[in-house]
Specification:
By secondary structure, the chain is an alpha/beta fold. It is built from 10 helices and 14 strands. Strands 1, 2, 3, 4, 5, 6, 7 and 8 form an 8-stranded mixed sheet that branches. β4 and β5 form a beta hairpin. α5 packs across α6, α7 packs antiparallel against α8 and α8 runs antiparallel to α9. The chain starts with 15 loop residues before the first strand and ends in a 25-residue tail after the last helix. 52% of the residues are buried.
Length: 368
């Protein structure tokens, strides 16, 4: 999940069709079109995808209400109509992925929206998500980022099962659960491209931050981060041997194994940080500050390795990810401690790769 605020919301009607930096293939790749949602007014921040096969169309992700005109314009440019859209799929219900679901579904009268069972009810009634986001940003910033978040008709929303497959033209879309970032997260394997739409389960890779070395990093934003589950999700994605991944943040990538290796190292480091913070006596703001500072130090190292030490855009593009990742790790510590207190066990328990204990905290989340 990524939050950005620039004062504008990217309301332009014309779509931006793009492929991410370093990707050699065209924006229309194996029947998959990458559409830049211009989330928060930024290029290369969040993508939505249009899949086209044998006259049928699916969208993957919806971004926000402001992205819907871009999606419909891209559909028209491809010579298709809203009536041709069979499915609208979201990887999870965070508003930078699903905030535009309601209006997009209304604009596509024959479409069915596909989502994780825990996410589906919040697509129908997004009031809890809206209230939580407004409490963080205030009404003005919320309006600039997300606009009006409208619910979808319940009879047009379909909860998907793990490993369930849907036909689209001559290809098949397989949904599979990928926890770690959110407990209501799914990824989607498309056999037509042998690609996986990864949402927030396979890292963030912003095109404008690619220099000497690929800069990709996990998102551990509040409030569901679980390093062990995130590692399992990376393994589940790579276990399909995809030729490419379609990142929501941002774009298609073919260096799948290299990204996976990087993410595993980073997530193992985050697991150790959860253990370290848990073993300390820090709580509340002190705990949050400690985790944000430690995450910030990790990012400084990653920036240096990528040749971004002196690039001022790094903080504009990824600065908030640093803070959110740190806060998410602090939230993981607090949830682990809460679970222990309920069980009557005060002893910190390691959950890193050398001492994995399965789920590190209760499964409740904002999208539950």
């Amino acid at each position: 999940m990524r939050f950005i605020f620039t004062g504008g919301a990217g309301r332009a009607m014309a779509p931006s069709l793009t492929s991410s930096a370093g990707e050699a293939e065209d924006a229309v790749m194996h029947g998959v079109l990458t559409i830049d949602a211009h989330y928060g007014g930024h290029e290369g921040s969040a993508a939505v995808y249009l899949i086209q096969d044998a006259g049928e169309v699916a969208f993957v992700e919806t971004n926000t209400t402001y992205a819907v005109p871009r999606m419909l314009a891209a559909l028209e440019q491809r010579g298709r109509r809203p009536e041709d859209v069979r499915y609208i799929a979201i990887t999870h219900v965070h508003l930078d992925h699903a905030g535009g679901a309601g209006p997009l579904l209304r604009a596509c009268p024959r479409a069915t929206l596909l989502a994780h069972p825990r996410a589906a009810k919040h697509v129908v009634d997004p009031s809890r998500l809206v209230a939580a986001a407004k409490a963080v940003y205030g009404p003005e910033k919320f309006e600039a980022l997300y606009g009006r978040v409208e619910g979808a008709s319940a009879d047009r929303v379909r909860a998907v099962r793990d490993d369930e497959t849907f036909a689209l033209g001559r290809r098949h879309l397989r949904f599979f659960e990928t926890r770690g970032h959110a407990n209501h997260h799914v990824c989607i394997h498309d056999d037509g491209s042998n690609g996986v739409f990864t949402g927030d389960s396979f890292g963030l890779c912003y095109p404008h931050l690619q220099r000497e070395r690929r800069l990709v990093f996990p998102t551990s934003a509040p409030s569901d981060f679980d390093a062990e589950a995130a590692l399992q999700s990376v393994d589940r994605i790579t276990g399909l041997s995809p030729d490419r991944v379609f990142l929501t943040h941002f774009g298609p990538r073919t260096d799948v194994d290299a990204i996976a290796r990087r993410l595993r190292t980073q997530l193992e480091g985050y697991a150790k940080l959860v253990d370290t913070a848990d073993a300390s006596s820090r709580t509340g703001d002190e705990l949050a500050s400690f985790c944000v500072a430690r995450v910030g130090a990790e990012f400084e190292q990653w920036f240096a390795e990528a040749g971004l030490t002196a690039d001022p855009r790094r903080d504009v593009i990824a600065g908030l990810d640093v803070e959110l990742n740190g806060l998410g790790i602090a939230a993981a510590v607090e949830k682990r401690r809460y679970k222990r207190s309920v069980a009557g066990d005060p002893t910190p328990a390691a959950t890193g790769p050398s001492g994995r204990s399965g789920g590190a905290f209760p499964r409740e989340q904002n999208g539950s």
